[in-house]
């Protein structure tokens, strides 16, 4: 694999990686990132890796790349008031539409990850993800997206319209 990246001023960056995988040459991932202070937004094709865990990442382990965009904390922050005892806080969220040969073609994926480090030798993290909508399912609208978190889409579709997974 070969990776190249660079900065364009103080607030923009680009990164791309490609190489040979299982006999084929191709672009593994690429992204454009813009940020101010600790908050950044990205667009591109990215393979999220949310922590090493005991046996590797469970939900997102860096092996699958997603086309889409998201928001992230480019560097850990410390929250105010009593929340400062949580220590350093990091997080990311993204939205992507994927190609799928499952029952629902072209579903959407939404994922979010949050980690805290109350002590330098302790890192706690949680990840949740939803695959939703797609062909033959209720459409991706703001209302459906909001209800996915509140009622698992049951109010919208009469049954669940998403498939969720979480790990801690």
Class by SSE composition: mainly beta
Mean pLDDT: 86
Low-confidence stretches: none
Question: Beta fraction of the residues?
Answer: over 45%
| Overall strand count | 10
| Tertiary shape | globular
Q: If you compute it from the alpha carbons, what radius of gyration comes out, rounded to the nearest whole angstrom?
A: 18 Å
Q: What is the helix tally? A: 2
Largest sheet: 10 strands, antiparallel
Distance between the termini: 30 Å
What is the share of helical residues? under 10%
Query: In sequence order, what are the helices and strands, one letter per element?
Result: EEEEEEEEEHHE
Structural features, described:
The protein has 168 residues and is mainly beta.
Question: Notable features of this structure?
Answer:
168 residues; mainly beta; ten-stranded antiparallel β-sheet; 10 strands; globular
Write a concise synopsis of the structure shown.
The chain is mainly β and 168 residues long. It contains two helices and ten strands.
Would you spell out the secondary-structure blueprint of this structure?
Elements: E1 2-7, E2 12-21, E3 24-36, E4 39-46, E5 66-73, E6 77-78, E7 88-97, E8 108-119, E9 122-132, H1 142-151, H2 154-157, E10 162-167
Antiparallel strand pairs: 1-2, 2-3, 3-4, 4-5, 5-7, 6-7, 7-8, 8-9, 9-10
């Amino acid at each position: 694999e070969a990776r190249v990246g660079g900065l364009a001023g103080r607030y923009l960056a680009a990164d791309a990686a490609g190489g040979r995988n299982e006999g084929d040459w191709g672009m593994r991932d690429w992204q454009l990132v813009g940020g101010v202070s600790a908050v950044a937004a990205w667009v591109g094709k990215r393979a999220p890796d949310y922590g090493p865990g005991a046996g590797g990442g469970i939900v997102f382990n860096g092996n699958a790349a997603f086309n889409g965009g998201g928001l992230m904390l480019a560097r850990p922050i410390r929250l105010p008031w009593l929340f400062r005892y949580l220590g350093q806080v990091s997080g990311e969220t993204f939205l992507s539409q994927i190609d799928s040969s499952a029952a629902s073609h072209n579903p959407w994926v939404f994922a979010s990850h949050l980690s805290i480090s109350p002590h330098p030798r302790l890192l706690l993290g949680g990840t949740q993800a939803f695959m939703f909508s797609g062909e033959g399912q209720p459409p991706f609208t703001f209302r459906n997206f909001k209800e996915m978190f509140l009622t698992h889409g049951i109010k919208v579709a009469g049954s669940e319209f998403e498939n969720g997974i979480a790990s801690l």
